[in-house]
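Take the subject:
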Amino acid sequence: MIVDALNVFVTVVEQSHFSKAGELLGLSQPGVSLHIRNLENEMGTKLLHRSPKQVRMTEAGAILYKHAKQILSHYEEAGREIRLLRDEVTGNLHIGASFTIGEYILPARLAAFAKQYPLVSLQLTIGNTEEIIAAVRMNQLDVAFIEGETTDPELVIIPYMKDEMIIVAPPGHPLAESLAVEKDMLQEETWVLREHGSGTRAFSDHFLQESGVSMKRSYVFNSSQGVKEAVSAGLGLAILSRWIVRKELAGGEISELRLRQRLLEREFLIIRHKGNPESMAVQMFIEKLLAVPRT
C-alpha cells in the first residue's frame, strides 16, 4: 500500500537512519530498504543519499517528504472521521513528557486512559523540556507535557497544572533544623543541578540568580532521580518538584528547607503542533487529563 511506503519514507527521513526507522516501525532494515527502493522506482528518481552514518534527502526527496506528510495527515484524518461514525476511539497516540511529568505524574493517568480506551496504542517518550519541544516541532509526537515556559508560535499551548518546587537538603544538614530559611542562609552552599535544557534547571537557575545566591560548588546530573539520590547521599542542596521527593520526605531520607514567606511554583503545560490535526485519541486524552484532579 502506498501509504505504508510513504510512512516508511517519512520515518527514515526524520530518523536519518534506516535501522532506527525500522526499529520504530517494527521492520527489518531490508524491509525498509525495499519500501524506499519501490518508491524510487515509482517516482523514477533517487530520493535519498545514503551513507554509513546518515541519510539525507535529495531535492526530489524533499519534495516528496513535504507532500507525504500531508498525505499521511489526510489519511489519518479520514480514518478518524470514519471511526467517529462507529463512535470508537482508536489509533496510535505518541505522547512526550519532560522527566518530572513523565516519571511521576503520567503513568497512573496513562493506565486509567488505557483501561477506558483499550483500542488506543500508547507510546511515551521522556526527555528534557528542550528535547520534547523539539520533537513536537518535528511532528514526532502527537501531544506532550513540559515543565516551564514556551512561546513557540508553532505550538498549541494549554495550561495543565501548577507544580510546587521545594529546596531539599541531605538529612542532618544544618539548615534543615531551621523553621524558616532566608535567602542569605543559602549562600556558598554546594548545589546539585539538572542539565541545561531541563525545565528544572531553568527554574533553579532563575531562582538562584533572582535571589542573588552564589554557589560554593555545583554538580550536574541529567535526571531528577540522579539529583534526588545525590542529595540523599549528602552531596548538596537542590530544587526539585515536590512530586519527585514525596516518598523520601515522608521517609526522612531527604529534608525540606522551607523558605520564609515564599512559595515556589512553576507551570506544567500541554503542547501540540498547530499543523497537526487533533485526532480523536488526542482529543479524548487531553479531555480526560484535564478532568482529573491535578494534585
Remarks:
- The chain has eleven helices and eleven strands.
